[in-house]
Every structure is written in C-alpha cells, then in structure tokens.
Amino acid sequence: MDIIRLIRESAERNLIYTIHALDEMNAEDEIITTDEVRYVVLHGEIIEDYPEDKRGHSCLMFGIPHSKRPIHIVCAPKEDYLAVITAYVPSLEKWESNFKTRRKK
Question: If we measure between CA atoms, which residue out of 34, 19, 29 comes closest to residue 89?
C-alpha cells in the first residue's frame, strides 16, 4: 500500500498529536488549528518521505488549507491512528517560494 493512502486511512480512524506538535501549533505568532492539520493530511501532498525514521515511516506534507497560508505537517501512520509529530507554517528563510523545496544552506 502506498504511504499517502496509509496516511489518509490512519487519519480517518484518529489523529493523535505529540506534545511537540501541540506546542508548535500553539505558537503565539502562528496558531494552527486541528481543522488545518486535517485538511493538509486529507488534501495535501508529500514533499519529503522518511521511510527510515526512528518513529516509524513518516512524511513531511504540504498543503494550503482554507486559511490560505502554507502549512507543513510531519506525520507517521500507525495501525489505529495517524501520529502528528509536528505542524508549522514554513518560512521563506528555510524554504523556496513554493514552500516545497528546502533552500540550500
């Protein structure tokens, strides 16, 4: 089964947020809602794949929800849920203007 299908099926069962994800989502300057996270998971695209991640196969997803701002989410599908590892608004300092390509250091 391909990873995007696995992610979406896991998300349909349940979304579980790590403490780190909740901290990032509640940053004073850029609060990210659970609706925005769900939108990116269900409609976004995978821009980086981490099959060897220590937490299990995970991916960096990108999407622009109804809020019209880019959102990145790192998530890992599990049997009964999707683990949301982090969620943030990408910055132009680290990402190209399409927010899908990392800037060269």
Answer: 29
H or E stretch covering 6? helix 3-13
pLDDT by residue, tens only, the chain of 105 residues: 599 999 999 999 999 999 999 999 999 888 999 999 999 999 999 999 999 998 899 999 999 999 999 999 999 999 999 999 999 999 999 999 999 999 987
85 token code pair = 């590892």
Residue 70 has which token pair? 């880019």
Asked if residue 21 belongs to a domain, the reply is yes
Q: Domain with 37 in it: what CATH number? A: 3.30.2310
Give the count of domains, the chain.
Answer: 1
d(CA 44, CA 24): 19
105 inside domain: no
